[in-house]
Design brief:
This protein has ten helices and 14 strands. The protein has 308 residues and is of the alpha+beta class. It folds into two domains: 160 residues, Alpha-Beta Plaits; 130 residues, Alpha-Beta Plaits, CATH 3.30.70. The relative contact order is 0.20.
């Protein structure tokens, strides 16, 4: 019998989703599709460092290199590389509870997108709206703060209730709308992940984000039971492509090519026990470079056979 992760560990992982709407004040030309996440991260870091070094250190500092208490789901502009003046760029910035004390400085830095601008041309992007995306829906920042926090236990239990209502043949659909950087046996994944790989990587993501002192997410035998249950459940209806972009690394002093898998695929109904792991990944993002906007996925359950 499968055991859920420890409830106390899941409950300790809390975060908020901020929906940000910036408006371009000029035309923005991107070097490659899906560059916005990298641009947003760079400008936010620059502005935050100037605004509040005290807030910059826990969010961007070198000691936080392996673990950052925030992740970014960038604006969905598809494969567009030319964004006209007036375009509204809607993104989602997620802050773990440990980053919440720095919200004020973070918002001031986000407003500075209008000052610093995006891209080589430094196109101003004025912050028009900030909303909290909580369990009860979207709300203005000042009105929604009280009930806006998510926790992993709530997401897990809600997913269990959803899956219990599905028909026997309904599958689960995944859309990787920004590059998904996963590794399998140490090498970058070049195909849609098996359900076992997905669950294993999601376990690692949740464990990494648990606050200090929360302990292990689950006992080793319980983890192994999940991997055995998911063994042999492979992706179906796969449509994938490799998406790459160039990014200059100030630390390494050269331009790096980074990328991952974009597209969609399904897992069959026999893998439905893993639905909570898919829902957690939708909230927390998965794989490498999540602060650049990578690993942003959408998942849909109860998909009828033949749906795309």
């Amino acid at each position: 019998m499968l055991k859920a992760p420890r409830a106390t560990a899941l409950r300790s992982l809390r975060w908020v989703h901020l929906e940000l709407t910036h408006q371009l004040q000029g035309e923005l030309q991107l070097d490659a599709p899906m560059m916005l996440g990298a641009l947003f991260r760079s400008v936010w870091g620059l502005a935050l460092h100037q605004r509040s070094p005290q807030a910059f250190e826990p969010l961007f500092g070198p000691h936080a290199e392996a673990y950052r208490p925030w992740w970014w789901s960038p604006p969905d502009v598809g494969q567009d590389t030319r964004l006209p003046a007036g375009s509204l760029l809607v993104s989602r910035l997620s802050l773990q509870d440990t980053a919440w004390p720095h919200l004020g400085a973070g918002l001031d830095a986000l407003a500075d997108f209008g000052l610093h601008g995006l891209g080589p041309e430094r196109v101003p992007a004025e912050l028009r709206q900030v909303r909290l995306l909580g369990p009860d829906g979207a709300a203005p920042l000042r009105q929604g703060a009280q009930n806006a926090h998510w926790d992993a236990l709530e997401v897990w239990q809600s997913a269990l209730r959803e899956a219990a209502e599905w028909g026997p043949s309904e599958s689960m659909r995944v859309w990787a709308r920004t590059p998904l950087r996963l590794k399998d046996q140490g090498a970058p994944l070049q195909h849609a992940p098996s359900l076992q790989t997905w669950v294993l990587r999601c376990m690692g993501r949740v464990q990494m984000l648990l606050p200090q002192g929360a302990g292990a997410l689950m006992a080793p035998p319980d983890k192994q039971a999940w991997l055995e249950r998911c063994d042999g459940v492979t992706a179906q209806g796969v449509t994938l492509w490799q998406q790459s972009l160039s990014r200059y690394s100030a630390r390494q002093q050269h331009t790096m090519q980074i990328g991952g898998l974009c597209g969609s695929w399904s897992y069959p109904a026999r893998g439905r026990a893993a639905w909570p792991w898919l829902k957690l990944a939708e909230h927390l993002q998965l794989g490498g470079k999540t602060t650049l906007g990578f690993g942003a996925v959408r998942v849909l359950g109860a998909v009828q056979a033949g749906m795309s």
